[in-house]
Amino acid sequence: MSSKYVPYATTPARLLRQLVSDLVVLVWTVIWITVGLAVHTAVATIAEVGRQVEDGATGVAGNLNSAGDNADSFPLVGDSLAKPLRAASEAALDIAGAGQNLDTTATWLAVVLALAVAAPPILFIAMPWLFLRIRFFRRKWTAITLASTPAGEQLLALRALANRPLARLAEVSIDPVGAWRRDDAVAVRGLANLELRSAGIARRH
Predict the structure, then answer these.
(1) Cα–Cα distance between 181 and 192 in angstroms, integer?
(2) What is the rounded CA–CA span in Å between residue 164 and residue 160?
(3) Dihedrals φ, ψ of 77, to 5°?
(4) Cβ neighbours for 177, distance < 8 A, ≥ 6 positions apart
(5) pLDDT value at position 20?
(6) How far is 93 from 82, CA to CA, in rounded Å?
(7) What's the 3-state SS for 6-73?
(8) Chain mean position to CA 199
């Protein structure tokens, strides 16, 4: 009988089903994480365009502003030349602001869309799987704890009398109920083993 802290069955058939289910959930999760990352990458490309626009427009605005400062030093026509250059610089800064907004929005949208695409199918499979594994772990924990004491073993045997098929009970004893009432140690242990196996636990004799 394995440690009650290990969340796996010790009966071969049930252990195989658990390992297969773990593998299926793992592969399913990896697939949808990959899809989510692909969506994130695709949308993040728009954010990269926004960063490029922001960087380029900011550079152009700086150059135009410098040109306006230089033109302002020309005698007579300096002010006339500087005004359109500075106006163009402000327009370039507006474009840079739009690029920054695009970058911010696309970066946020990339994360939201990636989660929206990947999370629902992952949770659809993972939540029932997790529920079943926790339920199995709790049942295994309780069964092994009961099996460690004589009174607990009798309780497991009683549960076997109530829940296991008659043919399986007859394999343990011709009169399983009478054997349990007489506290027949061999029969009680055999009945308890039936209940343990139903919980995925194989006890060494």
Answers:
(1) 14
(2) 5
(3) -100, 0
(4) 161
(5) 95
(6) 16
(7) CCCCCCHHHHHHHHHHHHHHHHHHHHHHHHHHHHHHHHHHHHHHHHHHHHHHHHHHHHHHHHHHHHHC
(8) 27
Phi first, then psi, for residue 103 (nearest 5°) are -60, -50
The vertex-34 CA angle with 31 and 36, nearest 5°, equals 110
- Taking CA atoms, 35 is separated from 45, 157, 176, in Å, by 16, 50, 56
Q: Are 161 and 176 in contact (CB under 8 A)?
A: yes
Which two three-digit tokens encode residue 50? 């926004």
pLDDT, one tens digit per residue, over 176-203 is 898 888 888 898 999 999 989 888 888 7
